[in-house]
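hey m, so remember when u said the tokens were messed up on ur end? i reran from scratch. heres the input so u can diff it against urs
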Amino acid sequence: FEGTSIREITSEAKCNVAAVNYHFGGKDKLYLEVFNRHLIALRDVRIAGINKVMSESGGNVVLEELLSAFATAFIEPLMGKSSGRRFMKLMTREMLDPHIPQNMFLEKMIMPTLTAMQNALVKTCPGLEESKIPLLVFSIVGQLIHAVRVKAMFEQADSANLPVFDLTEMVEHIVAFSAAGIRAATEGKANAQSSA
């Protein structure tokens, strides 16, 4: 961010500096708008994936179907296009050297997605303790982000000794592993209540 001038940006975009200043008020606000547009697009894809599986299930969604829809909606935009991969790198850099307001990512991405997933999990697993759901969702997201980063590292590495990394297989594993954990949390609550 610091090493790129507004002139370099406008040269690549084939526009003039005055247009950026007029529409965005400078490099900082242009950056915020680009980040905001990507966040909203990613958020909308993730929430649409959750909503789609919930509406198509007729109220009888299987936990693995919900988790698979969420995982697919989470990963596909980051893997399919070069812009998705670039945005993943940008989000990683933002974590290390922030330029956006601290609450932007929370308000635009995390809370709306968490709310949608929480509502879906409550319907899918009625015995699940609602206070535990954020931890479950963050655990799933952490696994997915790690899978995307590892896949990118494996693709860039020049080593024949690396194991084969199949992202589809990894997502299936994350779904199965997470579903088992969620069921264990649900059953653990039921067992605790029955013994009390």
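this time it looks ok to me. Helices lie at 6-13, 17-24, 27-56, 63-79, 82-96, 102-124, 133-156, 167-195. if urs says something different then somethings off w ur setup not the seq
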